[in-house]
Amino acid sequence: MEGRVYTPDEVASLFNISKNTVYEMIKRGELRAFKIGNRFRIERSEVRRIISSSASRRIDV
Hints:
Keywords: DNA-binding
Radius of gyration: 12 Å
Protein name: DNA-binding protein
Distance between the termini: 39 Å
InterPro entries: DNA-bd_dom_put_sf (IPR009061), HTH_17 (IPR041657), SinI_DNA-bd (IPR010093), Tn1545/Tn916_Xis (IPR038148)
Mean pLDDT: 90
Shape: globular
Number of domains: 1
Low-confidence stretches: none
Pfam family, one: HTH_17
Largest sheet: 3 strands, antiparallel
Structural class: alpha+beta
Organism: Mesobacillus zeae
Helix content: 40-55%
Strand order of the largest sheet: 1-3-2
Order of helices and strands: EHHEEH
């Protein structure tokens, strides 16, 4: 595990989405997270994976 981990609130702020959306992404398996006690944490590498996968998507207009 890398040193930096994010809370669902921090991930929501980074992606400009709601905290509930982050939890739904975790539930659907779209965002990998782990628990410390009863709180989710997301590794920096996972945040980077989501950024690169969304950047590589092509939008047709």
